[in-house]
């Protein structure tokens, strides 16, 4: 069953200039993308910095306004809802942010941080609220006795777990995780990622997982969308993308993953050089006359790619 369907979404930021601060141009941060997330699925958006991943996530959760297109959540178009109606649906979509150092208010106690969604949506008594917060903290591996502590008293990994507890408070259906581990030490990253996988089944969650790191995306995601310049250039399962990448940009992303086996280092280096050369020489074949990327077309049932029309 489809939980979220993004249809031809565009998000443009106006660029103002001149004496009257008129709109002189637009940054086309997200430029006509479509994808869907099914119940219980993890869909990964990957691409280099500035390709529009964060803008996509923030628009779905209502922090930014769509320029055009639809965001269907359980068949309801969130872009058409009035503020109050949107607020009702919004409880089923929560977000985990990149930086656990800045996403938790340093002046608030853990109790107040994790209870925030309850205070917005439920009217629990203080005792009930405290009990539920403690239960959530316990589930994410934080001592329930910590409720009166402040964020700075925890490590990065623990803070991200507190962020996850807050996101889980209302038992959402979809969590948007925007680079959830990139601010953490590598040793802690795996713990947090595995923990996110563990709770997925228990809470029947779907994830939109945003990252610039294709290795992490592959580990976490059932299906992957490759973003470039505000467009999706390829979409498929991890298997499709890794074993049979079609788009030159996808090949370049894969070639950029550091080689792990020392004996394969030279081979990998040569491949990377070849792909980078092909990318710089032939990328314009993948754009139309106005520099736009073509629409996705099917390669197989699960795999789609934006290839030049003549190929
Ligand atoms: N408030 C804004 N005003 C104007 N342009 C913006 C604004 N926010 C983002 N952009 C531009 O929109 C494009 C997409 O940005 P976005 O942050 O969505 O990309 P991203 O893939 O998430 O990158 P990163 O991983 O660096 O956050 C970039 O070119 C960025 O410079």
TrEMBL record:
SMART domains reported in the protein's UniProt record: AAA (SM00382)
Pfam family of the protein (one): oligo_HPY
Domain ABC transporter stretches: 4-254
GO MF term list: ATP binding; ATP hydrolysis activity
Organism domain of life: Bacteria
The keyword Transcription appears for this protein: no
Protein name: ATPase component of various ABC-type transport system, containing duplicated ATPase
UniProt organism field: Caldibacillus debilis GB1
Highest classification ranks of the organism: Bacteria, Bacillati, Bacillota, Bacilli, Bacillales
């Amino acid at each position: 069953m489809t939980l979220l369907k993004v249809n031809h979404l565009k998000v443009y930021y106006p660029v103002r200039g001149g004496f009257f601060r008129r709109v002189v141009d637009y940054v086309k941060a997200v430029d006509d993308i479509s994808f869907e997330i099914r119940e219980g699925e993890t869909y990964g958006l990957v691409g280099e910095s500035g390709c529009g991943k964060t803008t996509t996530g923030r628009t779905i959760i209502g922090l930014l306004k769509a320029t055009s297109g639809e965001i269907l959540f359980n068949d309801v178009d969130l872009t058409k809802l009035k503020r109050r109606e949107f607020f009702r649906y919004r409880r089923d979509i929560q977000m985990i942010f990149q930086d656990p150092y800045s996403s938790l208010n340093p002046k608030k106690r853990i109790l107040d941080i994790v209870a925030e969604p309850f205070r917005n949506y439920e009217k629990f008594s203080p005792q009930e609220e405290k009990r539920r917060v403690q239960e959530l903290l316990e589930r994410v591996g934080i001592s329930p006795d910590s409720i009166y502590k402040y964020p700075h008293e925890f490590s990065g990994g623990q803070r991200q777990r507190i962020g996850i507890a807050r996101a889980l408070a209302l038992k959402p259906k979809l969590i948007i995780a925007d680079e959830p581990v990139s601010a953490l030490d590598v040793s802690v990253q795996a713990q947090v990622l595995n923990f996110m996988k563990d709770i997925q089944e228990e809470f029947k969650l779907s994830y939109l997982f945003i990252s610039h790191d294709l290795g992490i995306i592959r580990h976490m995601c059932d299906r992957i969308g490759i973003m470039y310049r505000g467009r999706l250039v390829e979409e498929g399962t991890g298997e499709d993308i890794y074993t049979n990448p079609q788009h030159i940009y996808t090949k370049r992303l894969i070639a950029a993953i550091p080689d792990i086996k020392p004996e394969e280092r030279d081979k990998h280096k040569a491949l990377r050089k070849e792909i980078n050369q092909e990318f710089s020489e032939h990328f314009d074949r993948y754009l139309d006359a106005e520099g736009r990327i073509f629409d996705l077309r099917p390669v197989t049932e699960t795999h789609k790619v934006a290839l030049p029309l003549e190929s």
